[in-house]
Amino acid sequence: MEKPAGLDAHFARRARASEWKPTAPDGLTEREYLLQFAARPGMYIGFTTVRGVTCFLNGYDYAARRTGGRGLDGFREWLLANHLRRESSLCWSGLVTQIALPARNNETDLSPEQELRVVEVLFDLLDQFLAERADVV
Hints:
137 residues, mainly alpha
């Protein structure tokens, strides 16, 4: 799949605007670590696509759970309860795409604009989820 034009440039501009500073991952909370990833996903995965971001987060989730962390445990259920308010058989990445693009025709590939929208919504939803989960603990 060809790289959507402008996604990496968009996230680089966003990182500069937020005064993002790279930090060693040791001692970061899951939320802080994933905020770093959200600021510059292309730095972690080569170039930014929905598929790349999803694969990175799935790998992060598995690694976190293997080492006793919570990873993305509960994220799918949180999306269903707080944003879709109905049952679905889709995984969390499919749910995020439905939330970001409710009128999307699933028979076509995502346009660069749709890729950007889905990735932005994913990072926003993930941050909300992790913030709420941190408040509960």
